[in-house]
Amino acid sequence: MAIVLASSSPRRQQLLALIGLDFEIILSDVEEDNTKDMPPHELTIAHAREKALDAAPRANPGDIIIGADTVVVLGGQVFGKPADAAEAVRMLTALAGREHVVISGVAVVRGHQVFTGFNATTVRIKPLLPAQIERYVSSGEPLDKAGAYAIQGRGTLLVESINGCYNNVVGLPLATLADLLRQAGVELL
Ligand SMILES: Cc1cn([C@H]2C[C@H](O)[C@@H](COP(=O)(O)OP(=O)(O)OP(=O)(O)O)O2)c(=O)[nH]c1=O
């Protein structure tokens, strides 16, 4: 029995490696649709489940598959990864000087069973000058990150405060994952 991470995100791979877990990677090919009319935590759980179920047929029978999805929620708006630099600037302009919530949904698939959960972290971004946003976007770092920033990179310079799980912001809430793996029969602690 192997543990399989259904994610192309290097951040998720690093976080899983952090807890000393042996795992394989199977890339999933799921397009996230953040315009679906459902509460953001349900949206991330639905995407996490789709990613894990997409990878499952390419894993070995008995393997346990992990999928995850992260979005940034500002008021009623859900931000995924920006399509281009202009959208990254718009997202960061909206986030500057305000608090938002980062939500990661996680799904663990074992055979016909699917265990799901999510975590939410509140992050406050500093007030930012347009030139600071432009320079940060020019660095390229925001382009593959939900909400157009990376707390684990230069984006940490934008963050005034964080309340909740840090790993959740980076893309994989490890304590939440441990609970789901336990339900699937794998004890990490
Ligand atoms: C807010 C934030 C997000 N992110 C990342 C985590 C996710 O990789 C990404 C959100 O996109 P996702 O669609 O959740 O994931 P992904 O497309 O990168 O990978 P896959 O679908 O194959 O699993 O944003 C950071 O790395 N740092 C941050 O501070």
From TrEMBL:
GO MF: dTTP diphosphatase activity; UTP diphosphatase activity
Co-factor requirement: a divalent metal cation
UniProtKB keywords: Cytoplasm, Hydrolase, Nucleotide metabolism
A Pfam family annotated for this UniProt entry: Maf
Location within or outside the cell: Cytoplasm
Keyword Cell membrane: no
Gene Ontology terms describing biological process: nucleotide metabolic process
HAMAP family: Maf
Protein family membership: Belongs to the Maf family. YhdE subfamily.
Protein name: dTTP/UTP pyrophosphatase
Organism: Sporomusa termitida
